[in-house]
Known about the structure:
Strand content: over 45%
Mean pLDDT: 95
Oligomer: single chain
Radius of gyration: 16 Å
Number of strands: 10
CATH architecture: Beta Barrel
CATH class: Mainly Beta
Amino acid sequence: MNTSTFLEFFNCCVGSWKTERTYHYLAYSEVERSRTEFTVEPLTTEIKNKVLSDNQYDAVDNLAEIPGFNLGFYTISEKGEEVSQNLNLLFVPKTENNLILEGDYLRDRAYEEARPIISHFQFNSQTRELLMTTNYTRTVSVDSITLVNPDLRIRRIINYQQPSAGEPLKDVVLVGFGVEQKV
């Protein structure tokens, strides 16, 4: 599996970032702006093992080479609402098909539900887009990060209402867009 572009993507993500986002809440016909400051730091092998354990995930070969990060962030909305969170995450590549690398995205704490969670990721090495899909209890979140250059990322978040079993995603409840700049 060729993971060099994938690892380069994550090497560029390490550091401090600021983002301006716009969220469109379709169910409420409301638009909200927010500002987020966040820091991304690599995980030690010990913490990577803890993320695997928290998710009851099998041991991974070459764990030191698997991208894993601590993400800490603080968000304030234009209404003055504040959210702060710190979590550990790990990306375990499973398959490669042409330019697309796919695998499992593990967190010790989910954004919307305070519990460990395993999600799915796809990484396109040509466009440098990381697409993460998480099935929560009530929603399915499809989160995209595109690395434009080492100091600029474009973010897109689409949350769908959780469909009935076997049904496609169709009912959008939230759409978010952001420009993330390294500081």
